[in-house]
From TrEMBL:
<dbReference type="Pfam" id="PF01408">
    <property type="entry name" value="GFO_IDH_MocA"/>
</dbReference>
<dbReference type="GO" id="GO:0005737">
    <property type="term" value="C:cytoplasm"/>
</dbReference>
<dbReference type="GO" id="GO:0016491">
    <property type="term" value="F:oxidoreductase activity"/>
</dbReference>
<comment type="similarity">
    <text>Belongs to the Gfo/Idh/MocA family.</text>
</comment>
<dbReference type="GO" id="GO:0000166">
    <property type="term" value="F:nucleotide binding"/>
</dbReference>
<dbReference type="InterPro" id="IPR036291">
    <property type="entry name" value="NAD(P)-bd_dom_sf"/>
</dbReference>
<dbReference type="GO" id="GO:0006740">
    <property type="term" value="P:NADPH regeneration"/>
</dbReference>
<dbReference type="InterPro" id="IPR000683">
    <property type="entry name" value="Gfo/Idh/MocA-like_OxRdtase_N"/>
</dbReference>
<keyword id="KW-0560">Oxidoreductase</keyword>
<feature type="domain" description="Gfo/Idh/MocA-like oxidoreductase N-terminal">
    <location>
        <begin position="12"/>
        <end position="128"/>
    </location>
</feature>
<protein>
    <recommendedName>
        <fullName>Gfo/Idh/MocA-like oxidoreductase N-terminal domain-containing protein</fullName>
    </recommendedName>
</protein>
Length: 327
């Protein structure tokens, strides 16, 4: 039996840690959403952390007893349920949805989601919050001043020993590339744009029990402006996420992604840049600006539509599996 909670014209779906982070942001904006959770234990913990009551029970039942659904929703459920929950909300008449990355865990699921939301006429955005971090905003400005990137390099190495100990479903482990690593890929291609060619190779198949499809990734590509992108990630070794953008005047280094270091042309020194990161320290980095973009249209071009995400996911799939695109 479902229980529901009252709220305004915003629905928050999920009652886990990510929903707690969104609730903090919404509270700062004086927004008290309706919340659909699932289990009673997670709803209790959510209330203890946020002061918001979350509905419990199957989502379909909560929708059924809700009456009139809010027109806008933020979806923060577990990765394996993102696509099905977003589809259900769209078909129930929700007009605008911000769904946590990666929206779907494989290409078939993503394509089915795109078809469903188009049929429903729902506006859907995918929440890659790192696009909104102060370090990225400053990097974008400097790259623009320099005339764009001449090359981009990124590393999406994962801490495999730590990950293997997590309590996750087999599907979430096997689709970790989409569920986690695409944070880095999205940021790298945000700087680079759509490629005209890519060549990718993958090694380490079956080297990791929890991720048998591959563990070592490398490749390169080019965009229509002639810029080069390359990547190397080794999940069998040490490493960390990072993105480097080279312009004709400087190298911009985001490693960790929340910080920006700059090396000027002709110098070996790397200088950490001061950023306006007060809100990134107060909330989950990038989240407040992302929510303001979704709700109020501030810097909305930085938000990625579901269709745009699906287009770039074709490149991510090639990086994940290996192969060649274009000349």
């Amino acid at each position: 039996m479902a229980s529901t909670t009252e709220g305004g014209d915003l629905l928050l779906v999920g009652a886990g840690d990510m929903s707690v982070a969104y609730a903090a942001v919404l509270n700062s904006l004086r927004i008290r959403p309706a919340v659909f959770g699932r289990g009673k234990d997670s709803a209790r913990r959510f209330f203890e952390k946020t002061g918001l009551s979350a509905g419990t029970g199957p989502l379909a039942e909560q929708i059924g007893v809700c009456g009139s659904l809010p027109s806008t929703a933020i979806v923060t459920v577990n990765a394996h349920a993102l696509a099905s929950v977003t589809t259900m909300l769209a078909e129930a008449g929700v007009n605008r949805i911000l769904v946590e990355k990666p929206a779907a865990l494989d290409m078939a699921e993503l394509n089915a989601l795109c078809t469903a939301v188009r049929a429903a006429g729902t506006e859907v955005y995918v929440a890659y919050n790192r696009r909104f971090m102060a370090s990225v905003l400053l990097a974008d400005r400097l790259i623009g001043e320099d005339g764009g990137p001449s090359s981009v390099k990124f590393d999406f190495t994962e801490a495999s020993a730590r990950i293997a100990k997590l309590s996750k479903s087999r599907r979430e482990f096997e689709t970790w590339f989409y569920g986690n690593s695409t944070h880095v890929l999205d940021l790298a291609f945000h700087f680079f744009g759509a490629p005209s060619s890519l060549e990718a190779t993958v090694a380490g198949q079956a080297a990791l029990d929890w991720h048998p499809s591959g563990a070592v990734y490398a490749g390169f590509g080019r965009n229509p402006a002639g810029a080069i992108i390359c990547w190397h990630a080794n999940w069998l070794s040490a490493g960390r996420w990072g993105v480097e953008v080279m312009t004709t005047k400087r190298k911009l280094i985001l490693q960790p992604l929340e910080k920006l270091r700059v090396q000027l042309h002709g110098s070996f020194a790397e200088t950490e840049m001061e950023t306006d990161d007060e809100v990134d320290r107060a909330f989950k980095p990038g989240l407040l600006r992302q929510v303001r973009a979704f709700l109020y249209g501030e810097d909305r071009s930085r938000l990625q539509t579901l269709d745009d995400h699906a287009n770039f996911a074709r490149y991510y799939e090639l990086i994940r599996t290996g192969g060649r695109l274009g000349a």
